[in-house]
Amino acid sequence: MLPYGRQSIDDADVEAVVAALGSDWLTTGPRVAEFEADLEKVAGAPCVTVTNGTTALHAAYAAAGVTSGDEVITTPMTFVATASGAAMLGAKVIFADVEEDTANLDPAAVEAALTERTKVIAAVDYAGVPADYDRLRKLGESSGALLVGDAAHSIGSTYKGRPVGTLADLTTFSFFPTKNFTTGEGGAVASTRPELIKRLKSFRTVGVVREGLRHADEGAWWYEVPEFGLNYRLPDVLCALGSAQLRRLGEFKARRAYLSARYDELLADVPGLRLPAQRPDTDPMRHLYPVRILDGRRREVFDRLRAAGIGVQVNYIPVYWHPVFEDLGYRRGMCPVAEAFYAEELSLPLFADLSDADQDRVVETLRGILGS
């Protein structure tokens, strides 16, 4: 089965992990700081590593001070963690609809959803294309809400020449194997605001602090926990893999751009198919290649491609369709643009090691199905 996404591991990655395994530090050691410094060069802002993209979102909402009674506005066209991370802290999640072409959070829908209880606006860079951060930031500033960017798809992307880690108050990343580069499991949160970085570091380390103590320091062992946190630390072994992978991020981006452009060309004249939107103000790291299957044929095309050994995927089920949100009173029909997008979306295989020959097979098979 040809997967829709897959990691690319080379000898340098293996050597980096082996070296970490042979060192004195498997976790909480020097490779964590090294990887965070490497991330900052790409993200454009200081970064705090965590165990995965889901915990990155949870940590970001905690750093933003999200709590019971707050509202968090976000998109339904994402993985559930973008919403559940806020809900688990007691916030009410408000789903705003998406732009028809990019499936990114629609600033006009956000503006209509703002209330005096809005604590955070959380955008998602769907498929690697950055959201409209300039408009979203203005809405945040006018309402007093913090802006969170879920950049799980978009590390390596830029928006109006600016790296994604500089666009929001807090930006989260995921390093799952299907993402733009991998640590196996891992994530990070970036911020240009020092006070938020400080809160992130404490939260991911079970709330432990060694500065600004309430009580007298009794010795080198002394620490305090002024706020609850969780153990979300990313170990040195995985940070070593991440630093090695980052050295190839430019190569990964170029290959994904080449494959995306090749899909654009090879699929341009296929009837019943709509290709991904392009935005002139973004330089995306193409994480997904999301086409839209028209005329109600998405399920048929999905099943026939899978049967042919081509591992397409659907990204994503509208979050409020999940039973956990249905049980909270959310109902279908809330975000019609997102639901229309979901009904047609299909992600074709896209990853750095995808060969031209395998891509040709995807194209020829899809052409054959839509032409029948």
Topology:
Layout: H1 11-21, H2 30-43, E1 47-50, H3 53-63, E2 71-74, H4 81-87, E3 92-95, H5 107-113, E4 118-124, H6 133-143, E5 146-150, E6 158-159, E7 162-163, E8 170-174, E9 187-190, H7 194-203, H8 236-246, H9 249-266, E10 273-274, E11 282-283, E12 289-293, H10 298-307, H11 323-326, H12 336-344, E13 345-348, H13 356-370
Parallel strand pairs: 2-3, 2-4, 4-5, 5-8
Antiparallel strand pairs: 1-9, 6-7, 6-11, 8-9, 10-12, 12-13
Helix pairs in contact: 1-8, 2-8, 3-4, 3-7
Description of the structure:
This is dTDP-4-amino-4,6-dideoxygalactose transaminase. The model has no long low-confidence stretch (mean pLDDT 97). The protein is built from 13 helices and 13 strands. α1 packs antiparallel against α8 and α3 crosses α4. It has two domains: 236 residues, Type I PLP-dependent aspartate aminotransferase-like (Major domain) (Aspartate Aminotransferase, domain 2, 3-Layer(aba) Sandwich), CATH 3.40.640.10; 122 residues, Alpha-Beta Complex (Aspartate Aminotransferase, domain 1), CATH 3.90.1150.10. It has 372 residues and is an alpha/beta fold. Helix content is 37%, strand content 13%. 49% of the residues are buried.
Q: Descriptors for this entry?
A:
372 residues; 2 domains; alpha/beta; seven-stranded mixed beta sheet; Aspartate Aminotransferase, domain 1; 37% helix; Aspartate Aminotransferase, domain 2
